[in-house]
From TrEMBL:
The keyword NADP does not apply. The keyword Acetylation does not apply. Pfam families: Bac_DNA_binding. PROSITE patterns: HISTONE_LIKE (PS00045). This is DNA-binding protein HU. Keywords: DNA condensation, DNA-binding. GO terms for molecular function: DNA binding; structural constituent of chromatin. GO terms for cellular component: cytosol. InterPro entries: Hist_DNA-bd, Histone-like_DNA-bd_CS, IHF-like_DNA-bd_dom_sf. GO terms for biological process: chromosome condensation. Belongs to the bacterial histone-like protein family. SUPFAM superfamilies: IHF-like DNA-binding proteins (SSF47729).
Length: 95
């Protein structure tokens, strides 16, 4: 599902206009992004948690030349699925 399809489905389920659904989805994404930039964690009960993971500086290799290179430390966004989402995706097997 692409963002446009998500917005269309959101509009359909909430009976909002396409423009209002677009604004709502974009606002949610903006809020999560702003909080992650600040280093906060965003938890949505039953869905999951968005957080920022730190990657240490390390050595790597240029695959084209084999030359050793330094890879700078960085931060990356991370998502950890909640129990309800995991259960929905992987339902228990019936015996």
């Amino acid at each position: 599902m692409k963002k446009g399809e998500l917005i269309a489905e959101f509009a359909k389920r909430t009976e909002l206009s396409g423009a209002a659904a677009n604004d709502a989805v974009n606002t949610l994404i903006a809020i999560i992004t702003e909080r992650l930039k600040k280093g906060d964690t965003v938890g949505i009960t039953g869905f999951g948690t968005f957080s920022v993971a730190k990657r240490a500086a390390r050595k790597g290799r240029n695959p084209a030349t084999g030359e050793a290179i330094k890879i700078a430390a960085s931060k990356t966004p991370k998502f950890s699925a909640g129990a309800t989402l995991k259960a929905a995706v992987n339902p228990p097997k019936k015996k």
